[in-house]
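User: Structure tokens for this complex, please. No commentary.
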Amino acid sequence: MLCESCQKKNATVHLTEIVNHNIQKELHLCEECAQKQGFPYKMQFSIAEVLGGLIEPLMGKLSKEMDQIKCSHCGITYADFKKKARFGCAEDYEVFKEGVSVLLEKIHGSAWHRGKMPTQVSREFLQEKEIKELQRELERMVQAEEFEQAVEIRDKIKKLKEQK
Amino acid sequence: MKIDDFANQIGAWLKGEGPDSDIIISTRLRLARNVRGFVFLTYANAKQRGDIESFIKEKLELVSLPEELLAPKTPNDLGAPQAGGKNGTDEKPVRTDQPGGLIYFRMKDLTALDRQFLVERHLISQDHARPNGYRAVAIEKKEKVSIMINEEDHLRLQVIHAGLQLTEGWKEIDKIDSQIEKHIPYAFSAQFGYLTACPTNVGTGLRISVMLHLPALSMSQQIEKVLNALSRIKYTARGFYGEGTQASGDFYQISNQVSLGKSETEIINEMQNIIPEIIKFERNWRDKLLADNDKKLKDRIMRAYGILKHAETITSEEAMKHLSLVRLGVTLKVIKDIAIKTINELFIFTQPAHLQKISKKELAPNARDVTRAKYIKSHLN
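Assistant:
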């Protein structure tokens, strides 16, 4: 593609003007003309820019309402997050959860952690899991009218919950 | 221990040992971690950054590295001829030795040259080499472990090994991480895992980078195929100094992009399967280049060797190019009188900050090229 301005060199800078989520205008320029016209173009593309571009279309209509959501801990809004593609604090993951899950799905192909956990967390996690399993067992016993065993399990659950 | 002491030694990972060291230079693992309760750095003001740094420094002093990692105390074990304080330099130490085996440096206390030196050593990132922002680094004496404080995340843990050592690397960094976790509460969520400033690092926070020397694939223009295949499975290849750098000297750092949804072991197993395929591909092309026209290949190697042995002045870029060919020559036994370790070291020691550290003075680019040529010559002849 030739540069739309000088019609001589190859267009290597491609600009898209977007107003209210609609593409208004596309411009294809060579490096020289782009600089002449005052478009600051960069030799290196940062991750933030790529991600920023990725986040916008993902949320579609929701996006505008979500932009206003603000984290009370660090004070950034969802719009800020989209611009820099950086979180302000750990809370943001919960506050912007809806958007974040979609984005992570896109980047990593998943929005669920499956790796290492801090020791404290993994202890709680395992305890939680044990309680859930016991509760299922309890239901089974009640249905089978095995009340003696059910009482035993109920006490076990109670003890585990107290430990937490 | 001062920065100059590091200049006098060779990082353990550069010794050219370890599995597949003809092709694999190093295996680097890093974990991104943030401290619970503090704002992330992109949005932190100076005071908050300062508070984070002091908090981490204080806590790191309580951390002991796993015993097998602690460097021996004798000066000889530094592996450096001049080590042991015989340099005669009386400059004020800019460090705090720590009982746990980590040496702590605040970026603002280091000269621009020292900071650049740490970048060249792969102990900090280029982004981290700025004096502002309460940045710091804690380095283990043998340079296997480094912890960047206030880079993009509050903590960036790194372990480097020579050759391909994924499982060993993971075992070590996992242990160090667990030690630190005893003293520093990490930002973690049951759904998203370890929470990071950038959504590309969340989950395990693990990025593994294997540095490969692929001269035959570059020469035969096969490298594009490898890079394309890698990007399709969400792996990236970058240059000698990581993000945003050109692949110079035919070095490629291959890293995983996905950090969430897979466990650390799964990521390691994936790498364990991918890297040997690339090694095989490179070896096959080395054989093919030799089989097709061994005179031509040997000629290229020996010419590069000749230039390095006799040049009076040489730029960093040209040195990297020729060293790459000489390295290939050593691994193919075309050149028999040099050890691979010597070549590996030359790649690092001929970088600008290293040359200035060795010369013990600042050098303008032209002077550097002369010093570089002299340094290379003295190590090859």
